[in-house]
Amino acid sequence: MSSTPTRYRLVIFDAIDDPKELRDLISNATGAHPTDAVQWLAKAPGVWPKELDEATTRTLLDGLYEFGVAAEAWRIDQFPDLSPPRTIHRAACLDEGLRIEGLRGEPTHWVPWDRVEMICAGCVAGDDGRARGTPFWPSTVVSGLRAIALRRPRPFAVGGRSQRTPRDPVGEVLVVRQDPRIVFRFVENQMNYAYLGDRLNESAADNFPIFLADLCARSAQAFLTDSTRALLDRRECGENDFPSSQAILEHATLQLLWSWYRRDRDSRNRSLLEEPTDPDVATDVDAESP
């Protein structure tokens, strides 16, 4: 009885300065059109959109290593799936952990703080559902998002097709719990912040940063993404903005993989320094000793 060949997902963690340098590697190994390969590389870091066989995966990893690009491959049955996250409307940050509550405040889930593996927050853009038939220039939020994607701001198309008015970005945070892995989603204007007590403000925009700060302060062992730190620092548009909830979910997946990759890399480096097996490494360590 034949077994199904193992398939892999390729993950690139580095931004590619010159995508054309890697065009032939990606195109020849995957069969992708050279233009498509360059366009995808320009968006790196990211996950290659298609599953790959073992031979192709090894070719790509070896080639990326030669170019000094941080990358790894995951078997598809081990690749973390964060979808769909559980949208939470009521929670409380307590000293012992995060209490997820029902609509009437009853506890429904408990997350000890040492089980919070990652916090990924950002501002998610969208539309308010109002259609407009006349052409108009996109807001600075949309222009900023296009700038990140290296696209020039442009007016929406003129014609009979109605357009939707972009709304202001809304804060969103994904909390990844481990053992078991569960993803909780908190949306700024869909939350009940009653647990804040005396710290409670009138607007969700004022309460959300307090809630996020509570989460991060108590989750001492959790990995905080750059977009989360940007929100904590109250920085303006940039890496903490996402065009959709799906985009921040995909970003969270990549960041979770990066946190594991960095942890394993740092662990290997410490092992080499403590018990070097390579003569060159041993010589370097000896040379640095007082």
| Order of H and E elements | EHHEHEEEEEEHEEHEHEHH
* Tally of DSSP helical segments: 8
Mean pLDDT: 83
Strand content: 15-25%
Shape: elongated
Major sheet attributes: 6 strands, mixed
- Work out the radius of gyration: 23 Å
Count of extended strands: 12
The percentage helix is 25-40%
Distance between the termini: 62 Å
Assign the structural class, choosing from mainly alpha, mainly beta, alpha/beta, alpha+beta, or little secondary structure: alpha/beta
Uncertain parts:
127-160, 281-290
Write the layout of secondary structure elements.
Blueprint: E1 8-12, H1 19-30, H2 34-42, E2 46-47, H3 54-66, E3 71-75, E4 86-88, E5 91-93, E6 97-101, E7 107-112, E8 116-132, H4 140-148, E9 163-177, E10 182-187, H5 204-218, E11 223-224, H6 226-232, E12 241-242, H7 245-274, H8 279-288
Helix pairs in contact: 1-2, 1-3
How would you explain this protein's 3D organization?
- By secondary structure, this protein is an alpha/beta fold.
- It is 36% helix and 24% strand.
- α1 (19-30) packs across α2 and α1 (19-30) packs antiparallel against α3 (54-66).
- It starts with 7 loop residues before the first strand and ends with a helix.
